[in-house]
Amino acid sequence: MPLKLRHLEVFNAVFETGSISNAALRLNLTQPAVSIALGNLEEELGFRLFHRKRGFFAPTGEALQLRGEVTQGLMALGRIEKRADEIRRGSARGLSLATNGALSMNFLPRVITEFQALHPGTPIELRVHSSRQIADWTASGQIDIGLIDSPVPVAGLKASVFAMECVCIMRQDDELASRDVITPACLADREMIGINGDHALDRQLNQMMFEVGLPLHFRAFSYYYAIARNMVAAGGGLAIIDPINAKADLGDGVIWRPFAPLILHETVMISSRDHPAAEIREQMQDFVQQSIAPFTLPAG
Taking every annotated instance into account, which residue ranges of this chain make up the domain HTH lysR-type (predicted)? Predict the structure, then answer.
């Protein structure tokens, strides 16, 4: 027998509130109705969901395993209801973008604001998640445009690659600030801020330092370039990051210098091949491409 939505809502409410009475208040139901729904759900599932102790309902191990799926299902239903409401009100022509973090703080907020100034009344949603999740969302049509790290982890997507030359960032009072170009020799015995521990950028840097026989010391790691910059500003050391976050004028006392030999960061703009492109999506893709162009290397 298919599970009923009301039963899942009751489970979630009891899980979060810890009692039948509080769950009933939240759902605007009677306590007997909540008790019956919970009992029916346990019967359908074939296992108990809560330990009953003096009116308090403590989740069983099975309930803890089930909770994540229930939460995701209710959230998905909420998104469906929201989308249906947008379609009903005629406001479903907005855009949804997602990025893995590199462009989420010092690039896309500005780009979105400038785009909306040119296209008033266009609602835009920005999500931040892993490249893999963004690719899945884009392939299934849940996201209009994704901006992720290369390589693209999902087949069947339209992709435009933007190659950027990474630079070295430091505090403006750092001893390396007087140099025109930073080289591997400059990094020996310096404390570094790495990216995610196994990021493609750090792999390039590690290989480069290994080939010239110089040590490399990572003091800390961050998932985001922008956070690495904050750590540099706080005196955490040096970092090699993308030019967008490195060159942002934030007034934080951080400066950048070219780094040689070349270390590449590749951002890929993706969209679905199977879902028709609305005109507004194509306009946003063109706008993103124009906005990112000053930071990219010439094609070829």
Answer: 3-60
> Which CATH fold would you assign to the domain 167-262?
D-Maltodextrin-Binding Protein; domain 2 (3.40.190)
Fold of 5-89: Arc Repressor Mutant, subunit A (1.10.10)
Asked whether the whole model's pTM tops 0.90, one would answer: no
The answer to whether residues 267 and 148 touch, using CB atoms and an 8 Å cutoff, is yes
Q: Burial level of 160, CB count in 10 A (0-12/13-18/19+)?
A: middle
Along the 300 residues of the chain, how does pLDDT read in single tens digits? 578 899 999 999 999 999 999 999 999 999 999 999 999 999 999 999 999 887 789 999 999 999 999 999 898 888 888 777 755 654 456 799 999 888 998 999 999 999 999 988 889 999 999 888 999 999 988 899 999 988 887 888 999 999 999 999 999 999 999 999 999 999 998 999 998 756 788 889 989 999 999 988 999 999 889 999 999 999 999 999 999 999 999 999 999 999 999 999 999 999 998 877 778 899 999 999 999 999 999 876
